[in-house]
Amino acid sequence: MNQSTQFQSPSFHQRLASASLDCRRGTTQILQVNLGSLCNQACHHCHQAAGPTRRELMDWIPMQRVLELVEATPSITQVDLTGGAPELNPQFRCFVQALTQLEVQVTNRCNLTVLFEPGQEDTAEWLASNRVQIIASLPCYSGANVDQQRGDGVFSRSIQGLQRLNQVGYGQGPLGLDLVYNPNGAFLPGDQRALEATYRSRLREDYGIEFNQLYSIANMPIRRFAGELKRSGQWEAYQQLLQANFNEQAAQRVMCRNLVSVDYQGKLFDCDFNQALGFGPFKADIFERSHLDFANQKIAVGEHCFGCTAGAGSSCNGALEQQETH
């Protein structure tokens, strides 16, 4: 049974209708490019189910077409590279350098431990020299919580990765270093501002680490995390939690209104979560498009969308609102 349609009462469509919300796209400002599912980690919450055994990787042909479409769509100001671990794609550096020539902001979603993989020894310095902004995964400032979610020893290597990024200039000037918090379980994130203050204090005092912003992101009940919920008997309770905390204001600011997601083959989706489910692909892929502006196109939504609209809301750039959950 499709994970995005199991929970029907009330449906996400009904919640939108009751709030008189029409979920349509605005101007495309962010292009999120998934470079493939290969990753050196296999995190419990990963909505892409990425890992070391995955072999899906974007090759240069779709990358070249992405470059052409970015140039043909002047409204795009940011290209957000994700995966898997984007750095493990053999074409990663060539693609980044080509994007920087188009004068768009390039953001790389880094899991930090990839910086210590073979062949990645100079990646931190290379990213800094190309002025790539970094969004780094650090689900908690507690080592035990991170290792439980991401694997033994991940926290220690993540801290070392952050220290290395600080050493090459990240988090202390024009080179942005933002962190991502994910709850370690079937609950919603706490207040983003309070979490950021705690992260800043703990990381600075314990490890001498500086960063720019913290993004709190709810765990999406799809793919690997959905399996965890079902095995632990928490699936229904988590779905009910998301529905009970539906936030109309957050629904009006969801990232899919100005972001387009591209998978490793060049298929287009409203967001990375839809992409992970194969849910609602656009009628034309990147090879059939002359630009990437989809203004006023209806957004494909399903029950998984409660994950982005619960509580303070959730997006790839963190909370959408400041609101207490029920």
Task: Describe this structure as you would to a colleague.
The chain has 326 residues and is α/β, with parallel strands linked by helices. It has helices at 12-18, 60-72, 92-100, 123-129, 143-150, 154-167, 192-207, 223-231, 235-244, 248-251, 272-277, 306-309; strands at 30-34, 78-82, 105-110, 133-137, 177-181, 214-216, 259-262, 268-269. It has an eight-stranded mixed β-sheet. The longest helix has 16 residues, at 192-207. Residues 1-8 have low confidence and may be disordered.
What's the layout of helices and strands?
Layout: H1 12-18, E1 30-34, H2 60-72, E2 78-82, H3 92-100, E3 105-110, H4 123-129, E4 133-137, H5 143-150, H6 154-167, E5 177-181, H7 192-207, E6 214-216, H8 223-231, H9 235-244, H10 248-251, E7 259-262, E8 268-269, H11 272-277, H12 306-309
Parallel strand pairs: 1-2, 1-7, 2-3, 3-4, 4-5, 5-6
Antiparallel strand pairs: 7-8
Strand order of the largest sheet: 6-5-4-3-2-1-7-8
Shape: globular
| Intertermini distance | 29 Å
- The poorly predicted ranges are 1-8
Number of helices: 12
On the 0 to 100 scale, the average pLDDT is: 90
Helix content class: 25-40%
Structural class: alpha/beta
SS elements, strand count: 8
Instruction: Give the helices and strands as they follow along the chain.
Output: HEHEHEHEHHEHEHHHEEHH
Strand content: 5-15%
Sketch the major β-sheet: 8 strands, mixed
Instruction: Calculate Rg over CA atoms.
Output: 19 Å
Summarize this entry quickly.
This protein has 326 residues and is of the alpha/beta class. It has helices at residues 12-18, 60-72, 92-100, 123-129, 143-150, 154-167, 192-207, 223-231, 235-244, 248-251, 272-277, 306-309, and strands at 30-34, 78-82, 105-110, 133-137, 177-181, 214-216, 259-262, 268-269.
